[in-house]
Every structure is written in C-alpha cells, then in structure tokens.
Amino acid sequence: MPLALLALAIGAFGIGTTEFVIMGLLPQVAGDFGVSIPTAGLLVTGYALGVVIGAPLMTVLGTKVSRKRMLMVLMGLFIAGNLLSAIAPVFAVMLIGRVVASLAHGAFFGIGSVVAAELVAPQKKAGAIAMMFTGLTVANVVGVPLGTLIGQQIGWRVTFGIVAVLGVIGLAGIVKLVPEVPKPEGVHLRHELAAFKNAQVLLAMAMTVLGFGGVFAAITYIAPMMTHVAGFADGSVTWLLVLFGLGMVGGNLIGGKFADRALMPMLYVSLGALAVVLALFTLTAHNKIAAAVTIALIGALGFATVPPLQKRVLDQAHGAPTLASAVNIGAFNLGNALSAWLGGMVIAAGFGYTAPNWVGAVLAAAALLLAVLSAALERRGTRTGAALTSDAPAMPEPARH
C-alpha cells in the first residue's frame, strides 16, 4: 500500500477520536454544564448534522483547489473546532465547536476515499479505502479509550486539547506524504451532481444512513447503559470502548477484503447480523460478560458495512465520484444524528437506557431490505440491457466481391 495511505489514516485517527470520544464523556460534560444526558447527546447529534452539511459544502468549495490542499484546509478546520470545544465556557459554545470540527469530517473522508482509490489498482480499491478508515477504527482502540480515561481522571477539556494536537500531527502527515493528485480533466460540478440522478447511488446512501445509524443508536448511550443497567463502574467504560474499537478494526478490514470479492453478499450478511445483535443487546445489556461481547460484535458488524458501501457509491458514481463520496460520509453521520436523537427520545420517554437498541435493530433491518431492493433493481437493469442488445437488428454483412 502507498505510504500516502498512512497519512490519510493519521488524519482519520484524529477525526475518529473526536467523533467517538464524546460518548464516553457524556456524563462528565452533562454534569459540568448542568444539562441532562439527552441534552448532552446533542453534542453527538450536532456533530453528525455538521458532517451532513459540511460534506457537500466543503467538497463544492474545494472544487477549485487540489485535493491535497483541500485536505490540508479541512484539517485546519478540525483543529480549530476542537480547540473551541476545549475552552468552551458554556454548553452552546461547545456545541458550536463540535459543529466547526465536524465540517471537516465528511469532505475529508470523501476526498480521502477518492485519493486512496486512485493510488491502487482497480481490484484493490475497497482495501485501500478500508486502510484509510483503519485510522478511524484504531482511534476507537487507542484514541477514544485513552481520551475517555483522561477526561474522567483529569478533565474532558484536556481530552479535546489533545485531540487538537492529533489534528496538527495529521496535517503534518498530509503535507509530507500525500502526493498532489491532479483533478480529472473535464469534470465539473455538474458532472458531480449528475451522480445523484442514479437510483443506485441514492439507495447506497440510504443504506448508509440506516445501517450505520443502527450502530449509533446503541453506542451513543453506552456509558449510561453500561453503568446503570449492566452495573459497570464508570472507569469500565474505557475498556468497553476498547472492545468496540477492536470490533471496528476487525470489521473494517474484513469488509474491505470481501467487498472487493462479493460486495452485495457482504452487505447482506453484515446488515442482517447487525440487526439481530442489536435486538439481542436489550437482553445482553443486563449481563456484564454478554454486554461486553455484544459491544465488540456491534463494532465489527457495523464497520464491516463501511468499505462496501463507500465502494458501491464510488462504483455507481464512476467518472465524477468526489461529491457523491463525500455526501455518503455525510450519510453515515445523518444516520448517527437520527439514531442519537431517536435514542434520546425513547430514553426521555421513560423506556429505559436499553430502548435505543431496539431503535438500532429496526434501522439495520430497514437497511438490509434496501440492499435486497438495490440488488434486485440492478439485476433487472442488467437483464433489460441484455434483452435490448439481443433484440437489436443485426448489422448487415459487407458485400463480398
């Protein structure tokens, strides 16, 4: 794999840390600002919505500059947002900081996916995308648990200050290692927008929203769920997040490997199993060992969908994939925002801390149905195209003299 993928993975590590570390610190942040847990959950929802808005916005703004330069600008935004979160005097300012940092997220992974795919042979594209996303998944094994521990022991503000430093390291890696990839000749914004006329692109994005949303429905509220329901101590949330991160690393690499071989079957298996495991989490959350195993499985199955879904969007938006790729990253976070909001609603309604797991199971099952529909429409289109070809009049043979 090219060394440039390491630079992209470093940036992804920083972004992954700031995205997920807030979940382990929700009780501390809520306590310091004097807000409820569901209100503190807006830091997850606000970040996710910022990604949804920022992904297309920043990608469009970056059409006039090289992809490398745009990646550098995005990391600068990420650093500024995390510094603002670290010094926020009130909850509203921290929410603004989270949104500022999130504006970099979607475009970084969207543009980074395109750059990663261009650096390798066609049959290795999903693997290259997975390698970049490995930075995000490893963040959940190292960055998020360490950030959670620091936040609980020293203060959550220190955690976000350290995350800003990670952004500086990621920026240096991009400057040093990512090559200047020239923009495709003749590809303009209208070509990028044309990808959204493809029903398969839209279906893939809908699968992204619902499938990964299922993961966040449960994981957003993992800290209160594990301490209030499973009976873990506050400090145990750190190693539970390590288990979730290890599952993500494994699922991401497996998803990347098999997406290059059998993309749609990989989606069927991962989405179906994810729906089942999320439903079971309402029961296993009451037992410490079973809860720990389930958390690892949710990470693995959830992230096994990421490389195949991202590659499917790139394949279907062939020729002008940058905007579609970035918007699909926004779709992941739209699912995060939707599920975090729905999870907070069912908790606030009095259904308990395990209720978001049912929300997640329903979302994942809906994504599986869309995957089946997408494949059926694709097969029908292939048969129709073959029939039209076979019915076309044969070209007359040239006269022989």
TrEMBL record:
Localization (cell): Cell membrane
This entry carries the following GO cellular component terms, namely:
plasma membrane
Q: Which UniProt keywords apply?
A: Cell membrane, Membrane, Transmembrane, Transmembrane helix
The residues the entry assigns to the signal sequence are none
What range(s) does the Major facilitator superfamily (MFS) profile domain occupy?
A: 4-383
**Superkingdom of the source species:** Bacteria
Q: Which residues form a coiled coil?
A: none
Q: Where are the transmembrane segments?
A: 42-61, 73-96, 102-121, 128-150, 156-178, 199-224, 236-254, 266-283, 289-309, 330-352, 358-377
A Pfam family (short name) is: MFS_1
Q: Report membrane topology.
A: Multi-pass membrane protein
| GO terms of molecular function | transmembrane transporter activity
Q: Does the keyword Cell membrane apply?
A: yes
Major localization listed first in the record, in broad terms: membrane
Q: Which PANTHER family match?
A: CHLORAMPHENICOL EFFLUX PUMP RV0191, PURINE EFFLUX PUMP PBUE
**Name by which UniProt lists this protein:** MFS transporter
> Origin organism of this chain?
Streptomyces griseoluteus
